[in-house]
Amino acid sequence: MGQEIDRSHFRKRDFxxxxxxxxxxxxxxxxxxxxxxxxxxxxxxxxxxEAWLVDPAGYAAPVNERFLALxxxxxxxxxxxxxxxxxxxTARPLRGSVLNQMQGELSTLWDQCNQTAxxxxxxxxxxxxxxxxRERELTVANMSSMTRYQALxxxxxxxxxxxxxKLDIKGRDHLKTSHRDILLEAAATSFQVHLQIxxxxxxxxxxxxxxxxxxxxxxxxxxxxxxxxxxxxETRIPLFEQAVQVTLSRAAKTNRVSFGTGYVGSSLFECxxxxxxxxxxxxxxxxxxxxxxxxxxxxxxxxxxxxxxxLIGFSDNQRPHLRLEHRVIPAGPSIIDTIANAALxxxxxxxxxxxxxxxxxxxxxxxxRDNFYAAAKDGLNAQVTWLGEKQGAVCDLLRQRLLPMxxxxxxxxxxxxxxxxxxxxxxxxxxxxxxxxxxxxxxxVAKHGKDMQALVNAYRTHLxxxxxxxxxxx
Length: 474
Hints:
Helix content: 40-55%
Oligomer: single chain
Mean pLDDT: 95
CATH topology: Creatine Kinase, Chain A, domain 2
């Protein structure tokens, strides 16, 4: 959930001054877009992996502060709940053997984290929603101590006029409950893929990522259970959207977590303009930073969680750059699965962004949105509509159309044949066997019964093996 702030209580003048600085920085950003000021010399890849800390019995272990104190790594940081942490990888040019390098770094960091966690009688687990997590554990008592999290909780409840957050998720079972803080969000952990993109084509990449969100979430789904109920293949999607619902109306266009309100026309600036016009500040922290650092704009953007989120950063040469954060992928099931998911995204978004005819002209935004929620709900069994075509099975679309497209995209980027074969081969086998993390979890329950503790223990045994999920047995 981003950078730390210095306090959690705000006055009206804090909001007024923050909005004024936000307007100034947004105006400056507009000139950067008009002038082509962004660093555009290469595509750069990176990722963030959110993970659970669990105890030997397979339940959430709220020990992240002690864990981080022992770990002492800038690549591993706190998350909202005391049983979550985030692992980060180094940004690398998207070429050659970059996927092997990403997997190697993430594997090494994962092993170091587990060695540290063992000193606390804990272990890391990568899974979209921990099946054993109980609603009573998702309370402020287990909130991480960062001031940012306390402030977010206070501000969201203030905007809701103190009314509890409500969950209403209809899947195979039906979950309907209410909650008095934002800790429900901590139950949803993701694998966030980053891509630094050229300024002139940033709108094409952003729109392509929206189009691709449905097939990507279908093939990566890993979150079928919450509160021992069988819900969506990727329950993390509705859970996160409803867990930080600021407005009291679900139909509002100012939801902080959403698929967005539409494609962009000619510039990613449209997203930041929308941020200014539609979203009230949640963390009006005034920072002593030069206007050119866009400190307030970036903080504000960090409290708006589009499933495809544009980011502003700065390169080593201090030039601003644009990044795309693809947030639809859950954590897990294994490290090689996560990198394979990233490979699929990088290949597909590169191919689509380069098409002579923009894909967003062939698929209405409303249909892309409907595809996304259908895929999150039904996974590889979902029916979706592709570019200018009739509705069909997303699994067939991935196997017949999108895998070859991803291969062409990775070749276009200059990745090695060995990298392409290895990681797209994982996706191909997952599709052939129709076994995602979500389908494996359901198959395990179907065979052994709804024992969430046994499910978690079997899951982590497979995770320790390093095998991709399509090879997991029951």
